[in-house]
Structures are given as C-alpha cells and as structure tokens.
Amino acid sequence: MITAVTGPGGFVGRALVKALIERAERPVLLSRNVARLPDFGGAVEPVEWSSTAATHLPRIDAVVNLAGETISGRWTPEKKRAIRDSRVLGTRRLVEAISRLEPKPRVLVSASAVGYYGDRGEEELAEDSGPGTGFLPGVCVEWESEVSKAAEPGIRVVMLRIAVVLDSGGGALQQMITPFKAGLGGPMGSGRQWFPWIHRTDLVNMILAAIDNDWSGPVNAASPGVVRQAEFAKALGSALGRPAVMPAPGFALRLMLGEFADTLLHSQKVIPAKAQTEGFKFRYPTLREALAASVAKPSA
Length: 300
Ligand SMILES: NC(=O)c1ccc[n+]([C@@H]2O[C@H](COP(=O)([O-])OP(=O)(O)OC[C@H]3O[C@@H](n4cnc5c(N)ncnc54)[C@H](OP(=O)(O)O)[C@@H]3O)[C@@H](O)[C@H]2O)c1
Description:
Layout lengths: L2 E4 L4 H12 L5 E4 L13 E4 L13 E4 L11 H23 L7 E7 L10 E2 L9 H14 L7 E7 L1 E3 L4 H11 L12 E2 L1 E3 H13 L4 E5 L5 E2 H12 L9 H8 L4 H4 L3 E2 L2 H5 L9 H10 L4
Parallel strand pairs: 1-2, 1-4, 2-3, 4-5, 5-7, 6-13, 7-11, 8-10
Antiparallel strand pairs: 9-12
The structure holds NADP nicotinamide-adenine-dinucleotide phosphate.
C-alpha cells in the first residue's frame, strides 16, 4: 500500500506520516520544500510538489490532501487569497495529476473544515446540513467541489470536515495555552458558542479508517464531546492548573484579529454522525481526556 500525503510536515501531516510508517508503509510526501521536512525516522519518499508545475508522480494507492495556507493570523486580502487558492487551486491541480495516473489511486481523502457550516447557533450539524455563509464556508464549498471531481475517473473521495485539532507540539492549542499560562485565559466572546474539537490521534485514525473502509463523501472529523467555548476555556484552565476567568470580549478579538476572530466566535454544534454510524471508536471522546493527553504529552 502506498499513500501520498500533501502538507506532510504540518501539524496533522507529521502525525499521519508517523502512523503510516508504523503500519509498515513507505509514504510518498508531496511537499513544496522537501529539504524542510522533519526527519520521520523511517522510510519515506519525498517528492517536490508545486501546485503550479508539472510533477511526475510515482505509483500511489491512496492520497491524503492536507496542504493549505494556515488560516491563523490577520486576514488581509492577500492572506484570504492564499487561504482560498492554496486549497481550491492546489486541490484542482492534485486531482488533475492523480486522475492522469495509470493505475489511478483508489481513494482521495481530503481535508475540509467545520468552517463549512458557518455560524449556526444551537443547530446540530451532521454531514447533510447545508453550508453557511461567509468567507470560510465559501472556501470549503469550492474546496470540496474540487475534491469531488476525483470521483469522475472513479476515485473514491472522502472530505473530512475537520474541527479544531488538539494535541501538544503545535496547532490551535499551543496558541490558546499562551494567555492561560500568563493567567489571562478565559472564555472568548459570550462563551455560549459551540466549539467543536478533535484530538489529533483520533483525526489520524479517522484518516486511516477513511482510506481502509468504504467511506465516501463528507465526514465530520469532530469529537462527539462538543462543548461550549466557556466550558472549553474552563477545562483548559483546569488541565493547565491556571485560572480561566479573564473573558476576551468579541469586539476586542475582532479588533486584534480582524475577520479571523469569527472562527473563534462562531457557533458550530458539529456531530460526528457518519463516523459513529460507521462504528468509528474515538480514543478521546471527552474534552477532559483529550486535554489531559495533550497538555501532559511530550511534543510529536
Ligand atoms: N489543525 C486544525 O485545527 C485544522 C482544523 C480544520 C481544518 N484543518 C485543515 O487540515 C489541513 C491540515 O492542517 P494542519 O494543521 O496540519 O496545517 P499546517 O500545520 O498549517 O500544515 C499545512 C501544510 O500545507 C502546506 N502549505 C502551507 N501553506 C501553503 C500554501 N500557501 N500553499 C500550498 N501549501 C501550503 C505546508 O506543507 P509543505 O510546505 O510541506 O508543502 C504545510 O505544512 C489543512 O488544510 C487545514 O485547513 C486543520
């Protein structure tokens, strides 16, 4: 079995590559800069990958698409273009390249995001819920549409609508921990908004399950233990042994972070309906367990 991964050095990618090596695969790493990839301590096949230039791809059975400009940071017009183009045009280019291969890969598992759903209050969001409105939902709709084109030449496609990924050593948690350590942690905005999350180990296991089983279409990659943001802040404070009493008002977040603040203030009660129907077992179904593992564990 040969699995190719785009964005292999990222927060999710490096954990996935390790898991693939652990199951005795030799993954193909499609990276814009192979010289900067981490040492995975196992056999890998790095391939310089650009979303604009033609690249010869080796034989591949499965493809996992994780590349994309980080959404973190102030959303200037240039940043928004990079967020959109790296996903929409990058995925288009990937799908064109793998569609030309003979034999073709069996399956394409691509990242999408819970940002697909936008700001939805108390609504329970399963995979058949429609998209929201605004910049991120628009990007996710276009992104998933490019992924689905791989089905035309007969490749099975899975779009994982990923929630905030928790683990040590990077990602959103690392950024959230800093104010808590300074005693400045607390709920964001009203704190009433639903805040979907998933532990990185569960996400990696879900990617492997999507490759190995007959899953297709959108799948919510979110833990069943979705909580409101205030509860998340309280649990994080308790895992760190720090207070979580300093609220960050919505207007202050918007002033500091611009439009990106919406990703923290929007309410998304995302339910992993499809994964649960498929019998997927979460190793970290509750936030308390996920944070205990993430805050204590040495970085990957
Ligand atoms: N982490 C989360 O909480 C979360 C939540 C929801 C959705 N997701 C989605 O899951 C995917 C993986 O997330 P992650 O946290 O692993 O992301 P990450 O750590 O930011 O890594 C993404 C990788 O994409 C490539 N990349 C970065 N900027 C790019 C650009 N402008 N053009 C093309 N490629 C670029 C880089 O790989 P190379 O330089 O090696 O090519 C990078 O290592 C992303 O698509 C993200 O949107 C993540």
